[in-house]
Amino acid sequence: MDDLRFFQHFLLHAYPPLPIRGVAVWRDVAALCHSYDYLVHAMLGLAASHLSLGATTSSRTSFTAQAFEHRVTAINLLNQALSEPCASKAEGDARFAAIMSLTFQSSYMPEGMLDFLSMIRGCTVVSHSAMPAFEDSMFRSFSLEGHIESLRSLNQGREDSPEDEGLVDAFLSSIRAVGALCRSTMEVRFLAAFEAVVKTAKISAVDSFAGLSAFYMIFGQATNEDFKAFRDPGNFAAQILLAHFFLVEYMIGAIALQPIMGSFPFRKEITVAWIRAIADKLPAEYDQHIRWPLEFAEFLLNDKSRGALPE
Asked: Which residues have C-beta within 8 Å of that of residue 242, sequence separation ≥ 6?
């Protein structure tokens, strides 16, 4: 009976909030899922994780366990499917819908940050090499260009409020201090592009968020060696960069996605959980580099007024 509940919850509340205003896309996905077991399990796992975050303690334990079981099954079945050529447009859509569902499930997992990065990379791999032409798929509006166009359409007629200038300067100061830790080409590239996008937030939250959306291409386009090194939990410079990135993405997204922010439940809580997890694993000599994002994350979680900033 829980699986029926999960399926209903997916259709009504837990389908991925991207593409923007994409409910019709996900209803079409639900209509074809009966032909692809990996997609069914990915959808059920996502819904179970979504339910677990708002559940009582006893139900949360059960939902979390079932979410994990569905996730493991979906990943195994999807990997088997990806070992064979894609046979049809519908199969390509099912593959991409499954990897999207697994990605968003990661975003509901307090320990899921590294999984999230891997799934983001998986989205790029599937869209480029494991399905027919992406521009012909039901997800064609979720290309980078299509996503940015939808983002601008979402904000049409709204004042494009910039982020608070003092807050942006504080972020920039903390980000620049991480520069001394960066060694690899990917780390340096990430830092430079990140600083430029954050500066844009002083002028336009929508433009800044569009730039942050493009950041995910960095993960997808990196070589296997570079991505593995960047994702390594022992790469403390990259971990600190990611703490800043996910915090900034949440803050600017709260403005740029304001009309649909209700579609991103638990985003703040999961972002804070990821930053706390990073901070807990850093050696003491890195405390100064994680201090500002950690303090601001705690402030954000406990003070909705944003009337004062951590020093």
From this structure: 113, 117, 274, 278
Q: How far is CA 35 from CA 29, 40, 98, 311, in A?
A: 11, 9, 13, 55
Tokens linked to 197: 């996008």
The answer for residues whose C-beta is within 8 angstroms of residue 33's C-beta and 6 or more apart is 39, 40, 43, 94, 97
Q: Check: CB of residue 296 under 8 Å from CB of residue 310.
A: yes
- 10 DSSP assignment: I
**CA 171/CA 297 separation, integer angstroms:** 12
pLDDT band at 49 (very low <50, low <70, confident <90, very high): very high
Which residues fall within 8 angstroms of residue 154, CB to CB, at 6 or more apart?
20, 21, 257, 259, 260
Q: How far is CA 277 from CA 8, 115, 273, 274, 290, in A?
A: 32, 14, 6, 5, 11
Place of tokens 């997800």: 139
pTM: 0.93
For residue 99, give every residue at least 6 positions away whose Cβ sits within 8 Å of its Cβ, in sequence order, or none. 42, 78, 119, 122, 123, 126
For residue 283, the SS3 value is coil
Candidates 76, 156, 63; CA nearest to 108 is 63
**The pLDDT of residue 311:** 45
Amino acid at 310: P
pLDDT tens readout for residues 250-283: 999 999 999 999 888 899 999 999 999 999 999 9
75: its two tokens: 């990943």
Sign of CA dihedral 150, 151, 152, 156: positive
User: What letter does residue 282 receive in the DSSP assignment?
Assistant: S
